[in-house]
Amino acid sequence: MKILIPVDGSDSAVHAVEHVIASRGWLKETPEVFLLNVQWKITAGNVKLFIDQDTVNDYYREQGLLALAAARQKLDAAGMAYTFHISIGTPAEAIVQYAAEQQVDQIALGARGENTLSTLLLGSVVNKVLHLAKLPVLVVR
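and the corresponding structure tokens:
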């Protein structure tokens, strides 16, 4: 079984990781875990005039690794293998696209993300994933 866990650095995302770790005991086989962090694209407008693409890419990588750190530590401590990826774009769409690319069987995500302001302004990433996904989505509280 392949499970995608989108991770934004929030406690809620870590709870989803903990749930997947705990569930390996009752699953028939240890799941293949994919961690995904999605960074909002910041290179809009005139930003490219002042900051080169390598600097922007370094920023994405640093922020993505920071957001993934707690989830990776939990999986490492549990002795579970995983792969991780940092994507750039709109979170819900990037999550569903990555799930399709990796042919995962399930998406497990936390009920609330890191940024409540963006949730209020842009709508819930969880709701968008539920709407867009063509595969089972487990929402962990």
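(Above: one complete record from the training split.) The mean pLDDT is 90.
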